[in-house]
Amino acid sequence: MTISALAAGVAVTSLGLHGLSAALAGGRCRKSLPERAPAYLPPITIVQPLCGVEPYSRETLASIFALDYPEYEIVFCIADAADPIAPLVHRFIASHPGIPARLLVGDDRVSANPKLNNVVKGWKAARHGWIVMADSNVLMPADYLTRLISCWCPDSGVVSSPPIGSRPENFAAHLECAFLNTYQARWQYAAECVGYGFAQGKTMLYRRDVIEAGGGIEALGVEIAEDTASTKLIRRQGLHAHLVDRPFAQPIGPRSGRAVWKRQLRWARIRRATFPMCFGAEIITTSAFTLLAAAIAARQFHLAASSGVLLAALVWYGSEAALAMAAGWPLSRWSPVAWLARDLVLPWLWVQGWLDGQVEWRGASVSADEEELAAGAVEPFGHR
Asked: What are the tens digits of pLDDT across the range 78-98?
């Protein structure tokens, strides 16, 4: 077999897998997907950690009070009573007296994860057996809770939603969408379709008894991230992580390239520490190797190398464009450039993920490695 023939096989295989992942994700994310009709809508507690006022705080707070659901309560959590978000939350609570809502203050140091430390009190105060942990920057549609409960199956341990970037206002924000939407969400839905689902911390629906059977809310502190801990906890019980149909949006607004890099590096190092085998395979998900293979394979079809690269790029990014269009995700003239920039960054991001176990989280450096967490999980946030 010649080198060009081997390269052709690599290019065709990777393009096929890429297109298949986009098709699998599109089957669950397309905006025209029919609504599921759950037979029972149980009362739900939403536990939402807050930290500071964000660009879309008023809009996301308004959305949580406008849900179309028979019975739900909201438990907001802040670590510090002086947090500037507190007065705004109190105003929203006062202006919606018909919705049970409260703001709890305190920081339970059960782990190295500041978000988990913030939500422990909310979990314990929840009145209902179904609990949603939702980040403060999730823009909730009116049917948010209905869609979550509709995807709960007999073998579910958690139902979650990947963050879908929306409203990008500059190129760095489009780059963030390129990571979140047609890359990370695409692969996450494809993995779930083949029975290997992962929880995603942006939105997670739990049944309290499942978590209590696995050791309680504190058990989610054995990993640096509560979503990876949730995934492992439920798998030990023979349960699965499922994803919501048509995932929920996270408004991006303007972003800096530095902020995008730091966030993606943090997530990469967490994935490397918690699911190293899966993270190891991420190096082959970039288009860079496929386009290189297409350039080498072009001579097999009597084409110029540039023609091979162009044809492969059209198939690769055409699949992503089709997914974004079907799902109603941001799609503009900047999208192909952002997708290419993302794929060029991915190998370096992958290398950096292996080189260091430290992640920056809310201004502190925390180890993502299990052995260091076990040695002193709460120390990094005990002396700030």
From this structure: 999 999 999 999 999 999 999
